């Protein structure tokens, strides 16, 4: 249970105020405990949960008892600050000693350690994550914050990647003749800090969980984007119905095996768009835009697979499609929704891969 002091701490994570990650994680416990990476709700939220067990074993190899607990880790990246926060909880601790054995469970220790902090990061003291079992029972939740300076990192967007892993150690009380136990790699979190700026991702600074899947989703049944969705669906599933037309045509983006990658150079985006407009004119004539139509392109002009740079990187194959669709639909499906919702909210940087899915 998240207590009042933890709720106050969680409310300080302004970009996640509207999300109760603990509740959502409870609805995905199968995924949250299946691997050390747990469940990634999106690029801003990660959780891990599972029932953990440690056997108390004597120096002679004989079992003395067992201790178990509910492990919870809630991770919060930040769209606006180069910071990642974790709330680590060990709850519902139970233990028993086998007949004829006595274990001082209360004074045994649980020690948690996060590895992977680099010189490009500000790394927290982790002394608070070392306590007796009694101490964890009294105060089951502890927090950690990792951050990075705004002008530290690689490239023009100052990227700093990090792979954090969590180890858990059980140490018997000094009065007990028992062996300690270590569980390595119990939790993993791959993060990235960046200073990409507002024009690229909406806010100057931020952090993300890079293992979260990036899938741009549109629906054929949503009126606002139904023409954009139909165009993408045809390009992915019926490329023979799209232009430019050629035998054996395929179009990328339907999976992470053949993904799209974001392009942020505005001059190159314009070149991609010009290549698509040329197709619209060649097929539908110079007046293709009559009645408020626009030339829609897929893959998007804001990707390296667009009309100009896609062929340049694939041996000249024209693996794209252009089609006139209503302007409002085009501006939503391949414009504001793609840019300000998908790119910005996920802090997708130049060269980062994603896939596109069309729902019914």
Explain this structure to me?
It contains nine helices and 16 strands. With 360 residues, it is of the alpha+beta class. Strands 1, 2, 3, 4, 7 and 9 form a six-stranded antiparallel beta sheet that branches. It is elongated, with a radius of gyration of 26 Å. The two termini are 39 Å apart.
Question: What is the structure about, briefly put?
Answer:
This protein is an alpha+beta fold. It contains 9 helices and 16 strands.
How are the elements arranged and paired?
Blueprint: H1 4-11, H2 21-26, H3 29-32, E1 39-42, E2 45-58, E3 63-76, E4 83-97, E5 109-115, E6 130-132, H4 133-138, E7 141-147, E8 160-171, E9 178-179, E10 181-194, H5 198-201, E11 206-209, E12 215-219, H6 226-237, E13 260-261, H7 266-284, E14 293-298, H8 309-313, E15 321-326, H9 327-345, E16 353-359
Parallel strand pairs: 12-16
Antiparallel strand pairs: 1-2, 2-3, 2-9, 3-4, 4-7, 5-6, 5-8, 8-10, 10-11, 13-16, 14-15
Helix pairs in contact: 6-9
Keywords:
single chain, 360 residues, alpha+beta, six-stranded antiparallel beta sheet, five-stranded antiparallel beta sheet, 16 strands, disordered N terminus
């Amino acid at each position: 249970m998240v207590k009042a002091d933890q709720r106050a701490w969680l409310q300080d994570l302004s970009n996640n105020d509207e999300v109760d990650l603990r509740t959502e994680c409870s609805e995905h416990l199968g995924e949250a405990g299946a691997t050390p990476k747990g469940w990634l709700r999106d690029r801003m939220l990660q959780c891990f949960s599972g029932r953990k067990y440690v056997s108390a074993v004597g120096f002679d190899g004989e079992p003395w008892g067992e201790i178990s607990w509910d492990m919870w880790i809630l991770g919060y990246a930040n769209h606006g600050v180069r910071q990642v926060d974790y709330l680590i909880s060990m709850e519902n601790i139970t233990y028993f000693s086998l007949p004829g054995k006595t274990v001082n469970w209360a004074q045994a220790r649980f020690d948690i350690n996060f590895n992977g902090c680099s010189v490009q990061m500000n790394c927290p003291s982790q002394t608070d994550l070392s306590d007796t079992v009694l101490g964890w029972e009294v105060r089951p939740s502890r927090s950690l914050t990792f951050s990075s300076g705004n002008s530290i990192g690689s490239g023009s967007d100052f990227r700093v990647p990090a792979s954090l892993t969590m180890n858990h150690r059980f140490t018997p009380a000094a009065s007990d003749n028992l062996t300690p136990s270590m569980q390595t790699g119990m939790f993993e979190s791959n993060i990235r800090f960046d200073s990409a700026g507002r024009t690229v991702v909406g806010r100057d600074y931020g952090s993300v969980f890079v293992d979260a899947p990036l899938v741009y989703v549109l629906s054929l049944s949503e009126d606002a984007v139904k023409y954009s969705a139909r165009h993408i669906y045809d390009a992915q599933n019926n490329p023979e119905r799209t232009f430019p037309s050629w035998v054996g045509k395929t179009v990328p983006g339907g999976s992470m095996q053949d993904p799209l990658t974001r392009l942020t150079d505005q001059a190159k985006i314009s070149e991609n768009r010009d290549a698509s407009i040329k197709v619209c004119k060649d097929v539908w004539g110079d007046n293709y835009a009559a009645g408020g139509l626009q030339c829609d392109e897929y893959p998007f002009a804001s990707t390296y697979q667009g009309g100009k740079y896609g062929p340049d990187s694939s041996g000249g194959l024209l693996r794209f499609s252009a089609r006139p669709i209503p302007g409002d639909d085009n501006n939503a499906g391949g414009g504001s929704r793609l840019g300000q919702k998908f790119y910005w909210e996920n802090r997708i940087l130049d060269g980062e891969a994603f896939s596109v899915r069309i729902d019914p």
